[in-house]
Amino acid sequence: MAKSGGQAVTQELIVEATDISLAYRRTRHRVSSLKQTAIDTINRRMAYEEFFALKSVSFNIARGETVSIIGRNGAGKSTLLKVIARVLPPTTGRVIVRGHVAPMIELGAGFNPELTGAENIVLYGTLLGRTPKEMKSRIETIADWAGLTEHLDIPIRAYSSGMTARLAFATATDLTPDLLLIDEVLSVGDADFREKSAARTVEMMNSGCAVLLVSHDMDAVERMSTRAIYLENGIQKLSGEPKSVIEAYLSDVHH
Amino acid sequence: MSTMKVYDSSVRQIPVISQVKSIYENRGLLRLLVVRDLTVRYKRSVIGVWWSLLNPLFTTAVLYYVFNTVFKSKLPGGAPFLPYLLSGVLLITLFNQGLTMGADAIATGAGVLTKVHVRPEIFAASASISSAINFLIGLIPLTIVLAIYHRTPTWHFPILLLVIFCMTLFTTGLSLLLAIAYINFDDSRSLINIFLMALQYMTPIFYPITLLGPHTRDVIQLNPLYSFLQIFRHEFGNVGVSTLANWEIMFGCSLVAFFGGFYIFSKRWPKVVAKL
Q: Of B31, B188, B273, which has the smallest distance from its Cβ to A87's Cβ?
C-alpha cells in the first residue's frame, strides 16, 4: 500500500505514528518467581532476548476515520493500543496524538464496588482524563442515559452486571472524544443495551472523531472501518482497504 | 481548536520531575482517590470513623496484655508503657498501610493502568496520604491515653506534621518499588510480608531500646522506622528523646526512598506494562 503522498491539508490528523518500534528484554523461559530468578542469577543462567512487540509501524488516522488493527494473538495489537493511549512510550519512532483520547476499557475496570453510582461516575470519568468538577455536572445526564437515575445513591456492588456495564459505557462515552480506542467491540448487557451502545458508538464515529479499533470480529471490522492494518509479529504486513486486508489475513490464518 | 491537547512521544520526560508534575496536574484525581479510600473505610461501615481506630487499639490492647501483664516489661525511668506502645503501633500502622495499600492499588489496577493514560504514582501517593489522615485520627485516642497518665501533648507537637510529611514521601517511594516486585514476581508478596514483620520487630514498638545489647542497638538504630518513631514519641507525647541523628536518618531515608523510588519506577514501569 503506497502512503498517500499528498499533503494533509484538508484532513486533520489525530494520530501520527511514525516508524514506531517497541522492544523489551524478556527472559528466555518465563520466570515469574523471585526464588527462581535468584537461583538463575546466581547460576548465571539468566538468558535474555530482545523482543520486538512492534517493529517500524507507521500510520496516520485523520478525523472521521476508523482504522482497525487485525492480526493473530500476540501480533502486537494490544501493544499498539497502549502506545497510542500513551500508556507506553515507543522505544523508537514518534507518536503524536491530538486532542482528547477516550479508551473503552473492560467495562467497570475503574469502578469501586463500595462507592455509589454517582461517586463512581465522577471517579471513572476523572480516571479517563476529565476533571472532577466537569464530571459532577454530568452525573444526571450520564445516569439518565444509562437508565440508572433511581440507583445513583446505592453502592454499585448492589448493581447487576448489566447495570454496571451500562454505567461504565455511559460514563466512558459521555463526551465525544477526538480519538476513541476500542479493544474488541463491546458485547455486554442485554439486547436493548447492546443496541443502544452500538448506536452510540456509531454516532461517535460519525460525529467526526477518529477511531482505532482492535478486533477479532472480521464482520465488525469490515462494516465499521475505513481502513485496516494487518499486524504480524509486530510488523505491519498490510494496510489499506478493509476488505482486501481481511482477505489476506484470513487466507494466512487458514494456511 | 487552539487549546487542543497534543501528545508527542518524542518530548523527553525528565524522571521524577515529570512524575511529580503529573501528580500535581492530576491533583483532582488524587483528591478523589484519597476521599475514596476514606469513604470506603468509614462511611460504609457500621461503626464509622471508629473503625480505623479499632485495629491499632485492639493490637495495642493485645500487646499491652502480653508485655505488661505477662512479661511485666518496664520502661526505663518508670515512663508509662501504654502511650509508648500505642504511639509505636500507630506509627507502624502508618508505614505498613501506606506502603502496602499503594503497592496493591498499582498491582491490582492493571485493568485501568495498562489502558488509560494515568500515572500509577498517583495511586501510591493517594494511599500514603489517606494513611496519614488515618494516623491523624489515631492521635485522638493517643491524646486520651496520655491524659490518663496525666500527660498532655507537647507544645511543639505540630512538628509532627514534618514526620508525617517525611513518612508520606518514604512510603510513596517504597510502594512504587513494591508494586514492581508484586507484578514481576508471584512469590514476592509472602517474602515481603516476612520482611515487613522482621522490620516491625526491629522497631522498638513494645520494648525499650535500652533492653538490647550495644551491638544490636547499633543495628536497630539504622532502621529508619526507629528514627521516625523516636521523633514522633518525643515530639508528640514527650516520651523518650530524639537525637539529631534521628532527624538526619528520617530526612535522608525519606528523600532517598522518594527520589529512588520514583526514578526506578519511571524506568521499570514501561517494561512492566509491555508485558502485562
A: B273
Backbone phi, psi, residue B222, to 5°: -80, -15
Interchain pair B32, A89: CB under 8 A: no
- The list of chain B residues with pLDDT below 70 reads 1-3, 43-49
Check residue A72 and report its DSSP letter: S
pLDDT the model gives residue A2: 40
The residue type at A209: C
Structure confidence at residue B46 (pLDDT): 63
**Dist CA A47 CA A27 (whole Å):** 6
Closest chain B residue to the Cα of A25, Cα to Cα: B271
Q: Do B39 and A100 touch (CB under 8 A)?
A: no
SS (H, E, C) chain B: CCCCCEEECCCCCCCCHHHHHHHHHCHHHHHHHHHHHHHHHHCCCCCCCHHHHHHHHHHHHHHHHHHHHHCCCCCHHHCCHHHHHHHHHHHHHHHHHHHHHHHHHHHHCHHHHCCCCCCCHHHHHHHHHHHHHHHHHHHHHHHHHHHHCCCCCCCCHHHHHHHHHHHHHHHHHHHHHHHHHHHHCCCHHHHHHHHHHHHHHCCCCCCCHHHCCHHHHHHHHHCHHHHHHHHHHHHHHCCCCCCHHHHHHHHHHHHHHHHHHHHHHHHHHHHHHHHC
pLDDT for residue A186: 62
pLDDT in tens, B170-216: 999 999 999 999 998 888 899 999 999 999 999 999 888 888 889 99
**pLDDT over 70 (residue A62):** yes
Q: What angle do CA B43, B47, B53 make, to 5 degrees?
A: 95
- Characterize B190-211 residue by residue with b for buried, 16 or more Cβ atoms within 10 angstroms of its Cβ, and e for exposed: eebeeebeebbeebbbbbbbee
Residue A170: helix, strand or coil by DSSP? helix
| pTM for this prediction | 0.91
Q: Name the nearest CA neighbour of A94 among A10, A211, A13.
A: A13
Distance CA B170, CA B224 (A): 10
Which DSSP helix (H) or strand (E) runs through A180? strand A179-183
Contact B83, B109 (CB under 8 A): no
- Residue B184's Cβ-side half-sphere holds a number of Cα atoms within 13 Å equal to 19
Summarize pLDDT for A22-49 with one digit per residue, the tens: 998 877 666 677 777 788 777 776 677 8
Beta pairing class for B6-8 and A227-232: unpaired
Query: Are B115 and A87 an interchain contact pair (Cβ–Cβ within 8 Å)?
Result: yes
Nearest CA to A117 out of A145, A83, A95 is that of A145
The size of the A-B interface in CB pairs under 8 A is: 120
